[in-house]
## 1
Amino acid sequence: MAMLHTVNKSPFERNSLNSCLTKSKEGSTILLIEDAVVGALKGTIVADKLTAAVANKNVCVLGSDLNTRGFTEADIIDGIKIVDYAGFVDLVAEHSNVQSWL
Amino acid sequence: MNCHKGIRLGKSLMKFTLLINEGPYQHQASDTAYQFAKAALEKGHEIYRVFFYNDGVNNATRLAVPPQDDRNITENWAALAKEHELDMVVCIAAAQRRGMLDADEAGRQGKDADNIHPAFRISGLGQLVEGGIQSDRLLTFGD
């Protein structure tokens, strides 16, 4: 079973999203939560890396954290899925283990 | 019938242990963990233990008085724990360094006050290890 990775800090503040994108295997899932949701936005300096990740990894973003920061589905890169907390729980249950990139 | 509840429901129900390493009102770790715990319990999963470590021990203070229009993180955890009989454990070494004491520890250390909410209990790091062993998933929330 594939692994779930969570990232909770903005890629413009920390390097954790970049580390996660580099180290995570194909077929794994990356869930962006808290300030990391800004990593899912279109047109940023990290957008190309996220677009590349979507091609062979399952990239998700926590919808409430996205909305809380004033963004919607229209603002995020195509292929990134929006999940709620129930979806977060399902992702944890569906993957063999969880790595929090702190 | 000797079959697991989750199998009867056609879904696998799990045990989770949550590790919280960040204090309240700092960023979002405790809030995210709380919302996750609520969502997991609503789905029928079990929260085996919530372990508060490092600055996360500050989530257990019974003396916090946040503004009335803000969430009360400690009371939210306490209410969830009461409803679902959650085991919420505060790391003793991390707590003592930060002046977090229950009545027993205050007496033992010769302090004149205690501040840990009764919904939480003090114990050691072994409880985190045991939580990891007994649970299907261990999730870390921090900064």
## 2
Amino acid sequence: MNQGIDITLKVWRQKGPGDKGGFEAYHAGNISTDMSFLEMIDVVNEQLTRDGKDPIAFDHDCREGICGMCGAVVNGRPHGPEKGTTLCQLHMRHFSSGDTLVIEPWRARAFPVIKDLVVDRSGFDQIIIAGGYISVNTGGAPDANAIPVAQEVAERAMDAAACIGCGACVAACPNASAMLFVGAKISQLALLPHGRPEAARRALAMVRKMDALCFGNCSNERECEAECPKEISIANIARMNREFFKAGLFSATR
Amino acid sequence: MELDARIPSGALSEKWDKHRFALKLVNPANKRKYEVIVVGTGLAGGSAAASLAELGYYVKNFCIQDSPRRAHSIAAQGGINAAKNYQNDGDSIWRLFYDTIKGGDFRSREANVYRLAQVSNHIIDQCVAQGVPFAREYGGLLANRSFGGAQVSRTFYARGQTGQQLLLGAYGSLMRQVGTGRVTMFARREMLDLVVVSGQARGIVVRNLVSGEIERHAADAVVLCTGGYGNVFYLSTNAMASNVSATYRAYKKGAYFANPCYTQIHPTCIPVHGTYQSKLTLMSESLRNDGRVWVPRQPGDRRPANQIPESERDYYLERKYPSFGNLVPRDVASRNAKAQCDAGKGVGETGYAVYLDFADAIRRDGKEVIAQKYGNLFQMYEKITASNPYEQPMMIYPASHYVMGGLWVDYNLMSTLPGLFVLGEANFSDHGANRLGASALMQGLADGYFIIPYTIGGYLAAMDRPEVAPDHPAFKEAVHYVTERTEKLLSIDGKRTVDDFHRELGHILWEYCGMSRNDDGLLKAKEMIRQLRGEFWENAVVPGSDKDFNQSLERAGRVADFLEFAELLVTDAYTRRESCGGHFNEAFQTEENEALRDDENFCHVAAWEYKGDDKEPERHAEPLVFENVQLTQRSYK
């Protein structure tokens, strides 16, 4: 069961935003199939460090698929080949000895590379700043049970709220669109009665911000949905579009 | 220095109310003149930064990740407690207070814990108003589930992602304040030192993790919300970047460190599988609602689980603790799992695991109901282990998860350094020697939303402060210290990687200062830590430069601090001559092998004062006074 596998890595190395960057090949030998993908990179990095070379920079933190910090494109697929899985939860048992894995950072105009596999995703924060919240100050909230929410509505809101903001949707999309990310947040808050008062303003502000940050448009490729590690549905993009049109045509805040 | 917890007088239920009236207020127009630094953006930091900005303060907020939404609070799975009593099952503020005090093995302050129970209900209200999609019943009202250490259903949850949803709620509020300009967000920054001027905390020195630049930030007060030090064990359920550095640097600048030996080993984690493992994954305690813990009755029984008949299984928690059964508190469940494995009854490849079995629950409620409750946890388990928990029992083993110890704070959540406030897991205040499940989220948000907004105002209004700018000599000194240390780390030029040192440190602590401790082991551990620390500064290899993005350097700094802090942890464990909660010294146990407290001599908080690198720290004691609860031997039978 713990028979090690031998893998060749071709990793994107780029010193900084100004550097041109390129692929470098590394050998990962005797890798336990119980290891996660990031643990495999740890092993390669330990060796590079001992050899006096610069280890591969990559973002990661919780390593249990929830913080959204990690992510890289593996053989052309964000977070690798397994469905509904972040890179940190991808295990080496899904690969075989002799495989060559090409590892690249998210590639999008709105996500500039910082170093190697690390990119700048602050655009996502900017979009949330534009309106991805309900404007309630601390204190003074009514009793939590004051407004009932139908269970299926709460569940759908939760489906959308499961987004971890990793950016795989942008990396997967040929247009580098952020619509799955934006649609998920708009949907979560538009579905809940607590979020309705600001729904129109929120939809307009977030979509405009997304456009201003050079994220692309949706052309129904559905790559985002296929690669999303939390399996967020593109129905959320449809809901975002409805909220956006409704706000643009009928709301007082347009 | 005398430790004064500044607990208000009067009846327990009136203390917080009276205290809020007694605290001085800052005029709304003056609040914008005050600058507050908040380090960390988890549940405590995010909620504090947002709430302080809403009040009108100017806040500078720092986080180590690329976005404030990624703080490790996000990984909390199971839920958040509140005394709403929506289930009509006998809950009350008093009961939540009592359960928490008892769960902490009577080593926390009555006044703090009562206040926590009081504000718990407001937290749920606040989160729902923010759009947190808590689980609901068909009628549209909020659902609850049970957690360890309680016999009522008071835990609110959002599937197995409660921490994520609460954090995103706080993050939304925080981002709204960034939009108004009252919060300036500094992501990818690591705090490397605290700046103290005339005895008051007045700023921090941080490293910009992208450019490598050392930055100075001055303020009227500093709020640390930098989480716990569970990663001192190397393998833990904490995120990779979780570290002790911020609180440890504050300790070296004069803040006392309280009860570092109170560490929580969580009973239900996925067992260790190999040397290169980088972290352990928690399986939420909520699983113990429906999962039954068992081992084979016969030591060395290697048959697969489904071939062991009922009569040859030992459901040891149900057997030993009939009234709480599988829902005993974490420390009790962990020690029992260890005892079973030490007796040779452990299962799995390594023999260091016990079963958590859902077969009965699936038979009773159907697969669909179980999937709705725990689906994402089952999925996570299967991804990691390649074993399907709907068909085979899970295998679990305890792992380092949370720390009750932290910087000492008074009732206002202020440390022994005036102007330095500490919230959430980073402080020591509310969980005593053991934290109950679903109480960390409650405490983090209580501190940030409902306590610091009042107490910081009281401090700012009452204290005079000189003008301090970032060119003050104290900043220069801190920058000098930080730069020198960084240069030293980069110039060691040894052979062994930083991770390798960290791994060995973790082994030492897990072996000698983990679930079960004894005097010989603790003394041995102290010596081993000293040796390892000596070797680190001679033989570590830290590649790269300090002028750019250098994750090896970041890790080296954190491990260097862990190597110092570990000794304090062991010293604290050695000097507490009793067992309580998560601290179990084998010399002090009841006939039934439960933790045996010494209330006569150790009913106090141990707060450690830094005395210099080559000197032993000084131990101060804050007596714990119980006026409202009777100290008893904890029993979950």
